[in-house]
Design a protein that fits this description.
- With 330 residues, this protein is an alpha+beta fold.
- Strands 1-2-9-4-7-11-10 form a seven-stranded antiparallel β-sheet. A four-stranded antiparallel β-sheet has the order 3-8-5-6, with no helix packed on it.
C-alpha cells in the first residue's frame, strides 16, 4: 500500500496521528495527492492537491495540537465526535485547538480539483510561541463547532488574502535542498500563525463550562442518546434518567457539545442512519431504526444533514458504483 506520508526530518513521532498516519488504506487516488513534511520544533505541514474521482470518508484520532488549514480548491466536511459538522470550502481557514486526543471524521469530496494546506503545532510548540498550549477561538467565526467542555475548539472563518497567498506559495514550492526547503516552510508556517493570531480577538469570553459535579451525569446523558438513539427521547425523560434537572441538563450539554439536546440527537441519528444505509439497510428500515415514523420527514432531515438523499447515499455506498465513499476506522 502506498504510504502518503513524506517525512523529511525526524521529529516528535506522535505529532500527526491523523489521516497522514492512521489511514493505512487511503484510496490510491487520494494517497497520490497527500504530502506531509515534519519540521523541527513541533511543526508539521500537510499538503493536498490533485483531483480524485471518488469521495473519501476517514475517521481518525489526533493528538493534542493546534491546526491551521487553508482551502484553495475543493470541499471537505468535518466534525469532532459529538460536535457540529463544519463545511470547509474554498476561501476559508479552519482552526482547531485541542488539549487532549480528539476523535472525529473528515469527508473529502472528489470529482473536482482539490488544494489544501494544513499547518500543525504541538501544544509545546504553541506554548513556546504564544504562551498558550490550547487556543480558544474567540474571533469572528463563520461557524463555531467547538466543544469547550472537552477542551476542543474548532471553527472556520474567511481566509485573509495573506493566508491564501501563503497556501499558494507552499503548494507551489519548488525548493529541493533540505535546509533551504525547511527554512522556507517554517517561515511560511510562522507567518500563517501570526496572521491567524492577529485575527483572533481576545475580547469575547469563552462559553461557560458546566460545573464539575455535573460533568459525569452530562456524559451519561450523551451516552444514552448515542446508545438508544431510536428511543423517543424528551428533555424531561433524559433529565429523569440521569438525575439532573432540566435547566442544568440543557445548559450543560450545550456547553459540552455546542448544540441543543434535540440537535445532538438528530446528529447522532443521522450518523447512525448513514452507517445503516451503507451496510445495505433499506431507507424504510433505516428511518424506523433511528426513531422516525415519517419516511418523508426522515428523508428531508437526512438530506439536510448529509447533503444527499438517503437513496443516493445508499447507492454510492454499493460496490461497483462510480462514487463510492471509502471509510477507514483506525
Amino acid at each position: 500500500m502506498h504510504d502518503p506520508t513524506v517525512r523529511e526530518r525526524s521529529a516528535e513521532p506522535s505529532l500527526v496521528e491523523d489521516l497522514y498516519k492512521t489511514a493505512s488504506d487511503v484510496p490510491t487516488e487520494w494517497a497520490g495527492m497527500l504530502r506531509h513534511v515534519q519540521l523541527d520544533d513541533g511543526f508539521s505541514i500537510g499538503c493536498m492537491q490533485g483531483c480524485a474521482c471518488s469521495d473519501w470518508e476517514v475517521r481518525a484520532k489526533s493528538p493534542a495540537m493546534f491546526c491551521i488549514a487553508v482551502m484553495l480548491d475543493g470541499q471537505l466536511r468535518t466534525a469532532l465526535d459529538g460536535g457540529a459538522t463544519l463545511d470547509f470550502r474554498p476561501g476559508m481557514v479552519s482552526l482547531m485547538s485541542t488539549g487532549r486526543t480528539a476523535a472525529g471524521w473528515n469527508r473529502f469530496t472528489g470529482h473536482s480539483g482539490f488544494r489544501m494546506l494544513d499547518i500543525r503545532l504541538t501544544p509545546n510548540a504553541l506554548s513556546r510561541l504564544t504562551g498558550q498550549a490550547v487556543m480558544p477561538l474567540r474571533g469572528r467565526l463563520l461557524h463555531d463547532c467547538s466543544l469547550p467542555g472537552l477542551d476542543a475548539f474548532m471553527g472556520c472563518a474567511p481566509a485573509s488574502a495573506g493566508l491564501m497567498q501563503i497556501a499558494s506559495d507552499v503548494l507551489a514550492c519548488r525548493l529541493k535542498t533540505g535546509t533551504a526547503r525547511h527554512l522556507y516552510l517554517r517561515a511560511k508556517a510562522l507567518e500563517a500563525l501570526a496572521l491567524v493570531l492577529d485575527g483572533l480577538s481576545p475580547g469575547h469570553d469563552a462559553k461557560p463550562l458546566p460545573v464539575p459535579a455535573d460533568r459525569q451525569r452530562l456524559l451519561e446523558a450523551r451516552a444514552l442518546l448515542e446508545n438508544s438513539y431510536g428511543q423517543d427521547w424528551t428533555v424531561q425523560a433524559l433529565s429523569r434518567a440521569v438525575g439532573l434537572n432540566v435547566k442544568r441538563l440543557q445548559a450543560g450539554l450545550q456547553a459540552l457539545f455546542g448544540l441543543p439536546i434535540h440537535a445532538q440527537l438528530t446528529q447522532i441519528r443521522m450518523d447512525a442512519a448513514a452507517d445503516l444505509l451503507a451496510k445495505g439497510a433499506s431507507v424504510t428500515e433505516t428511518a424506523y431504526a433511528v426513531g422516525f415514523s415519517s419516511l418523508s420527514h426522515f428523508s428531508k432531515v437526512f438530506r439536510n444533514a448529509k447533503g444527499s438523499a438517503p437513496k443516493q447515499w445508499a447507492m454510492r455506498s454499493e460496490p461497483g458504483k462510480r462514487t463510492p465513499i471509502v471509510r477507514h476506522v483506525p
